Amino acid sequence: MKLDLSLYLVTDKRNKTDDEFLEIIEEAIKGGTTVVQIREKEGETLDFYNLALKVKEITSKYNVPLIVNDRIDVALAIKSEGVHIGQTDMPADVARSLIGDEMILGVSASTVEEARKAEKDGADYIGTGAVFPTATKDDAPSITKDDLKEVTGSINIPTVAIGGITLENANELAGTGIAGISVVSAIMNSKDPKIASENLLKIYNEKIDKN
Amino acid sequence: MKLDLSLYLVTDKRNKTDDEFLEIIEEAIKGGTTVVQIREKEGETLDFYNLALKVKEITSKYNVPLIVNDRIDVALAIKSEGVHIGQTDMPADVARSLIGDEMILGVSASTVEEARKAEKDGADYIGTGAVFPTATKDDAPSITKDDLKEVTGSINIPTVAIGGITLENANELAGTGIAGISVVSAIMNSKDPKIASENLLKIYNEKIDKN
Hints:
Chains A, B: Pathway: Cofactor biosynthesis; thiamine diphosphate biosynthesis; thiamine phosphate from 4-amino-2-methyl-5-diphosphomethylpyrimidine and 4-methyl-5-(2-phosphoethyl)-thiazole: step 1/1. The structure is a homodimer. Chain A has one domain (7-208): Aldolase class I (TIM Barrel), CATH 3.20.20.70.
């Protein structure tokens, strides 16, 4: 499966029922979302496993890769296409050895040093941010457009920008060398996740990817 | 490695520095603890992974099996001897498929039905409780000595009793058919974890195992 990072949805289950959550994901994919990451930092493992199985049914139906945040055990159990780890999760080289060569490994990296280390340790892509102020992860380091450009220029694997990206500000990421935009709220909290995805993908394709 | 469940320590890192925590584990092993389980339900994966690596150094030095609670990814990453899962963690059959045939699989089971299912799903032992009131897991179901005896009699794999076991009440478990006693506070919060272990193991060997 060629990894198309153009529009990368990181999910957020908070304040949503399972059905609402799953419907948003399906609508987002219908609107063009190219990657889905599930992320549950709280709750029981069984609940995450069961939810992840349901998400996997949807992503498989549309042939969109599913990435599991942090929990490599859940990723292996549901046979997701990949895992994504942060700087306070399992070390990237250990993660790579656990998932083997075939699964996708994403790593959050906010500096050139972290990005280079992630690439060396076996990452297939990095997630970098926060490129704009964000309420979802208020402890995320914030970086400038120049920082982002420096990071993308320092590695040979693709970079997804994350953090506070909206329909209004996404075009500011033109020229930074990113391979995709990653959003949480802009889709999860949108009134129409399908249209939000269509519009975000359009901005990425027309304003960012070609610049 | 033959699994000797006689004195099974479940650790609790709360309110302890790494050094204090590791010293308690080493002293407990010197006092006769036969299995160590590490359990961290909060905090970052990287912290658990790093702590688990340090515990593994100690348990390997004394040839005592190390069991990781819930986090199969951490268990695989540090090459622990086994994993232990509760009824709200990964399903036991999925856990078994992730860890392969060689690693030890323990499952918490408080009823005959849960115990039989655990055995069928590939558990090597079950942990059953709480046999006495406990402050460590105040949401644990409590069971009587008759319940415990019914569980041990219903399966062909060994049972470890857990929950509020102390030097004062452990002898009450005689005649229940258990293969070991599991404690948290009786060792973790003891002034002398080595002597506490010696005394608990003595009670198990003299009052419970032979009855």
